[in-house]
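Team,

Forwarding the record for the chain on the shared tracking sheet. I've put the sequence and predicted structure together so nobody has to dig through attachments.
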Amino acid sequence: MKPITLQEIALLTGGELIGDPSVVVCNADIIRDSEPGFLTFAEKPEYFEQVMDSPAAAVLISSRYLEIAREELKKPFVVVEDAAAGFSTVVSYFRTPIQTPVYEVSSAAFVDPTAKLGKGVTVDQGAVVGAQVVIGDHCRIHSGVKLSDGCQIGDETEIFSNATLYENTIVGKRCLLHANCVLGAFGFGYKSTGEGHQLSVQLGYVELGDDVDIGAGATIDRGTYGATRIGAGTKIDNLVQIGHNCRIGKRNLICALVGIAGSCTTGDDVVMAGQVGIGDHLNIGDKVILGAKAGVMADIEENQVFVGIPATPAKLQMQIIASKHRLPEMRKRINRLEKELDSLRASIDCTDNDNEMNAA
């Protein structure tokens, strides 16, 4: 890890240096973890004060905040069009990845004779490629991966260690399948009888569109008869469960620990925050946003934001929460009103008794 000057960082990132070009930078990290001699970055002016309180030697900022930086930053800084992208370039310089041996097809892998591998395919040791599997050009299959019979893998897809694809799984181009994900496991469909629970037929498969990412430990169940489909450009986080027969639209963002029950559909550009739960046979419209832990129990039309358990429109949920916060004070008021009402009733009863006695 060779130290470089700020002038060299400006050249590396295509940025403009404001400050001493001879300042030496030995590493790069976020503000919280920066140390003396480090370069850090600030995406927004709100972070400039934290930069000044940090031990970092210099900071990288976006050009649209240049005038504010001139006033508030008393450390050298490098101005680039996009601070996050520029900082990634610098971090990559200091975090040169370890070069591991690359095998076209390792002698320690098993590839069935009927499998077809495209140009530039790498299959690492311990991987298993089953019968009639088709792997496109420039794919990387890491150690321990299991591609069962009949799987199809699109060009430039990378599958990380110990991922398991059941038979006939279809994966598009440029997909990323992270460690230990499972595609095509049996759906959770049982017929209950007096003698127990009988597994339903499991004749379907899983199909991923192009540019789909599947997180570590995520699971997508096969369809009952046909496909469970994930639309192109959808990104699925770690430990997500998607049930059988689901149809997930294009460019969805599905965060960690989401659970989607069987036969659900989503539109395009849907966002689900962590731990969202969706009941079976529901439809989520285009561009819906579901807040963390939302429990969805009914269809949701497009372009809405839902939160809470059960999930309700965000505005209504905020009103409900505000009302809950007022409950203690409302309880005190009700108790006070009940006492006043009891006192008023007692006063009325006394007056009625006096009137009866006078009448007598």
